[in-house]
Amino acid sequence: MSEAPPPTNEPGIEADPEEELDRLDITHQKLKILLDNKLLLCPINKPESVLDIGTGTGIWAIEFGDDNPNAQIIGTDLSATQPSWVPPNVKFEIDDCEEPWTFREKFDIIHGRYLAAAIKDWPRLVSQAFEFTKPGGYTEFQDYDLVYYSEDGTLTDGLAVQEWITTLLQASRDFGRDPCPGPKLEGYMRDAGFKDVQSFKYKIPIGPWPKDKHLKTVGSWNLLQIEEGLEAFTLRLFTSLLGWKLEAVHVLLANVRKDLRNPKVHMQFDL
Predict the structure, then answer these.
(1) What does the alpha-carbon distance between residue 229 and residue 170 come to, in Å, rounded to a whole number?
(2) Across all residues in the chain, what is the average pLDDT?
(3) pLDDT at 148 over 50
(4) Bridge partners (DSSP) listed for residue 92
(5) 3-class secondary structure per residue, 105-153
(6) Half-sphere exposure of 241 (CA within 13 A, CB side)
(7) Rounded to 5 degrees, what angle do the CA atoms 204, 179, 211 make?
């Protein structure tokens, strides 16, 4: 399978921790709605052991643990931002998924999502996931191609939002983090040795402009999470690493917000 710009634990990115946690939970809700309330698309057949890499707030691991009380779920992340009150079958560990994995067991299900712009070496990460997936088990990545586009020509190069996202994504690439891993994941998984690999693409609108009720709801949640993290994605990266003046960044972001909220600009990106 195939949002988000770099998370707060990436060098050069700085955000209010509480606001970023709220944004991650909003993103979780957005994806649940997009995927018809499913946490996974792969078959779930009474799993005993589950690994959630880059667990963030832990909301996915907690919900999966509630739904599967006989499974033991481990959620890993660089930061201890998860709640202390969790289901008895869920635990969290501070761990870097790009370092060598040291788990004593293999897993029935390995899950990772919206790691776009956070991973240096995707093939190595996928290879480690393959190594730690039980025979007959599943690994599922849900990640983005964060290039904004429109299918009707309403997103043009003259818009501030296009300048912003193009600059942001290129900065991430220059920093060695791919902001658009989604389309490449199928190839990474086949190269790692996974069999029966399936890939799905979902269009995620930005804003409530679609006529379709389901996509309108998804787009509303997506707009909310982008606006929630707009300054966090941008301020330090643009000023410290790209050399923009702070005043210029604020002017850009004011215009970006106008573009994001403009119902006549039908922009989207892909999962």
Answers:
(1) 18
(2) 92
(3) yes
(4) 75
(5) CCEEEEEEECCCCCCCCHHHHHHHHHHCEEEEEEEEEECCEEEEECCCC
(6) 19
(7) 10
Name residue 219's amino acid.
Answer: G
How many Å apart are CA 198 and CA 89, to the nearest integer?
29
Structure tokens at 186: 């199928």
pLDDT in tens, 53-98: 999 999 999 999 999 999 999 999 999 889 889 999 999 999 999 9
The CA-CA-CA angle for residues 185, 212, 208, to 5°, reads 80
Q: How far apart are the first and last CA of the chain?
A: 7
Give the whole-angstrom CA distance, residue 240 versus residue 237. Answer: 6
Buried b (16+ CB within 10 A) or exposed e, 228-255: bbbbbbbbbbbeeebebeeeebeebbee
- State the Cα–Cα distance between residues 35 and 110, nearest whole angstrom: 18
Token readout for 194 is: 């996974």
Contact 90, 60 (CB under 8 A): no
Burial of 124 (0-12, 13-18, 19+ CB in 10 A): middle
DSSP secondary structure letter of residue 96: -
Query: What share of the chain has pLDDT > 90, as a percent?
Result: 86
| Cβ-Cβ contacts under 8 Å for 241 (sequence gap 6 or more) | 12, 171, 175
Locate the DSSP E strands across 114-253: 133-142, 145-149, 203-205
Provide the 10 A C-beta neighbour count for residue 259. 21
How far is residue 26's CA from residue 28's CA, in Å, rounded to a whole number? 5
For residue 220, what is the enclosing H or E element?
A: helix 213-236
Top mean-pLDDT range of 14-28, 164-178, 185-199: 185-199
Report the pLDDT averaged over residues 44-49. Answer: 94
